[in-house]
Amino acid sequence: MKGKMKRPIQALQSWLRRQPPKIKVFLAVVSAIAALVVIRLVVYDHDNLFIAAEAVHALGISVLIYKLATEKTCAGGGQITFQQKVDEVMERDDYLKRLPEIRSEYERISDSAFSVRSAKMPGLSLKSQELTAIFLGARLYCSYVMEYDVHTLLDLATLTTTVWVIYMMRFNLNSSYMHEKDNVSVLYVVVPCALLSLVVHPTTQHYIMNRIIWAFCVYLESVSVLPQLRVMQNTKIVEPFTAHYVFALGVARFLSCAHWILQVIDTRGRLLTALGYGMWPSLVLISEIVQTFILADFCYYYVQSVMGGRLVLRLPSGVV
User: Which GO MF terms does the UniProt record name (predicted)?
Assistant: First the structure.
């Protein structure tokens, strides 16, 4: 029965892999729109979406805390087995046409499997965690001086746990941190966001410095995950806890983006005018959409991996 249930899923996955990039993008957009429609019908108070996004982010941080506290390592604790290598070959759409080559392929991957079995898989990006702490600190300050509501407490809790993760990675578990894989400079991310916030920021009645900091945290949040994606891009292999965390980020970013889009729809565009005039309202929406689509590809392969019963996530070329 279980095998019969898997066959349609595998056929769908195979069909999706064969589609050109434009079709995949179209299907992703249609799926996102369908999800927005469902959320709008199911969730009556759309402000709860932002709270849900913060809760999912906190859940992802909790996964990291559990990983660091139990495994005592920043890198992956798993191993790449021969069977996982075999599965990678068998998942290719054209393997039936290449039966004469399968034997030599197995011999090659058998040798390579033994060479990587004892190697650690890359895990967390310290730089992504540091960027997360920076934008959370900026957002916490803005929330405190501008609103001071439940979002302030959520940001404080998330910032506290993120700082703990940074402390563990930088000091207690630094020997397991793969510096050479985490090779995106923080300045390359922070400086453009800071410069953009000086040029484009809210035009509300708050102090100019507070408005600039607000814009800075919005821009930085949208790209803070880039170092983590770079770490995964360098190896194409993601250990389970890191995969769970990045997937939680993807879900949180989607819920946050859905919150903004539905708020704009519900207010018939009045929310954009409340944020100010000029380029700022448009950049807020663009930032939310960008940070969602940055992680969309990864989330697809994460779901595919979980449905296939594989703990170690293997990313194909061109992803993230």
Answer: ER retention sequence binding
Q: Which bin fits 76, alpha (ψ -120 to 50), beta or left (φ > 0)? A: beta
Token pair 């996102």: residue:
32
C-alpha to C-alpha distance for 162 and 133, rounded to whole angstroms: 6
What is the spatial distance between Cα 40 and Cα 300, in angstroms, rounded to a whole number? 22
Q: Say whether 107 sits in a helix, a strand or coil.
A: helix
pTM of the model: 0.78
- Helix boundaries (H) for 43-125: 47-71, 82-90, 99-116
DSSP label of 170: I
Cβ burial 179-207 (10 Å sphere, 16+ → b, else e): eebbebeeeebbeebbebbeebbbeeebe
Q: Is 283 exposed, middle or buried (0-12, 13-18, 19+ CB in 10 A)?
A: buried
- For β-strands 313-314 and 237-238, DSSP reports them as antiparallel
* Residue found by looking up tokens 């997360």 in the block: 132
pLDDT digits (tens, 9 = 90+) for 117-130: 444 556 789 999 99
Count of residues in the chain: 320
Segment 170-216, tens digit of pLDDT: 998 888 888 888 888 999 999 999 999 999 988 777 788 999 999 99
Matching residue, tokens 């990587």: 116
pLDDT at site 267: 77
What is the distance between the alpha carbons of residues 63 and 70, in angstroms, rounded to a whole number? 11
CA distance 234 to 68: 22
How far, rounded to the nearest angstrom, does the alpha carbon of residue 264 sit from its chain's CA centroid? 24
Tokens describing residue 317? 């070329």
- Would you put residue 186 in left (φ > 0), alpha (ψ -120 to 50) or beta? alpha
